[in-house]
Amino acid sequence: MGRSPCCSKEGLNRGAWTALEDKILSSYIKAHGEGKWRSLPKRAGLKRCGKSCRLRWLNYLRPDIKRGNISGDEEELIVRLHNLLGNRWSLIAGRLPGRTDNEIKNYWNTTLGKKSKVDSFSGSSKETSLNPSKSIAKKKDVESKTSTAAVQPLVIRTKATRLTKILVPQNIPSDENYTAAAANPLELQTQSAEKGGSTEEFPRTNAGDCSNILKNFGCDDDDIDAKGDQYCNEFQLLNSIPLDEAMINDGCWTGGNGCDLEDYGASLDLDSLAFLLDSEEWPSQENVVV
DNA sequence: AACCCGAACAACCGCAAGGAC
DNA sequence: GGTCCTTGCGGTTGTTCGGGT
User: Fold this and answer.
1) Could you say which of 2.60.40, 1.10.1740, 3.40.1000, 1.10.10 is the CATH number of the domain covering A19-61?
2) Which residues touch strand C (CB under 7 A)?
3) CA/C1' separation A105–C11 (Å)
4) What CATH number does domain A72-151 carry, 1.10.150, 1.10.1740, 2.10.109, 1.10.10?
5) At what angle do helices A136-151 and A113-122 cross, to 10 degrees?
6) How confident is the model over A145-189, as pLDDT tens digits?
7) Between chain A's N and C termini, which has fewer beta carbons within 10 Å?
8) Is the pTM of this model over 0.85?
């Protein structure tokens, strides 16, 4: 099946985006929503490849993008998730609200990857300081986790599978321990399992609560207007399936930018991931947000 | 002040999956 | 069922910027 080029290269702008281009793209997407990237540049009046528009929007212009330095907690989370998932940046990014896969990938390649490379080369816990700005204590903590993972590598595969369904926990538990987990369905599920979880523990809400749920996941009113119905349909669909079963069947474990664990099937038992949660807490949302 | 170098980040590219027809 | 199109992902390259000499 021959692939057609994503766009004609002739007459198109390349390289850095100008403020005007950003404004045009943002305004267009705000007015018409995402999607149809191939035809978007023409409709918006941009001399850009659709792919380039999509990337610019996803990695830079999206309103929910968190800018600024990666915090210590986020770094720790990235390290742990990388140990678990390998270079599946989109999945890792899905666990870090407001961070993009590209950002995390860059951060890894420029900072953490080198650090871990040096660590493994030295083969010791000797201090390595490629990034002196990071706190030593935090760094040691990260290193110890990295070395733990080296003993127990669990890199699943390097190619991500596309998300085809979005799974959002139907009810945001009031218990503060679960509040942080609300944005981390994997943790929610694991905790649920640890507690002998069932749909009774996390009763699923009806579609009427969708707006609040979406807001809890960082959607603004525009998002809800644009996609609320779609998400609510998903909610209603999933409401007919017990929560844990739905997660396994749908294979999704993140909100919005999730993955498909279905392929892991025999090789990946979600319970086996519990070791990640055994010794230490995942960073809470309050800690992650800068 | 000029130059060099490395880090950080933005953007591009090729490939593959999934859906529509 | 096959083909084509769209979208998303991960790897790589290019550019910018700041610090050191």
Assistant:
1) 1.10.10
2) A 1-4, 6, 15-16, 35-39, 50-51, 54, 87-91, 101-102, 105-106, 109, 158-160, 162-163, 257
3) 10
4) 1.10.10
5) 70
6) 333 333 333 333 333 333 333 333 333 333 333 333 333 333 333
7) N
8) no
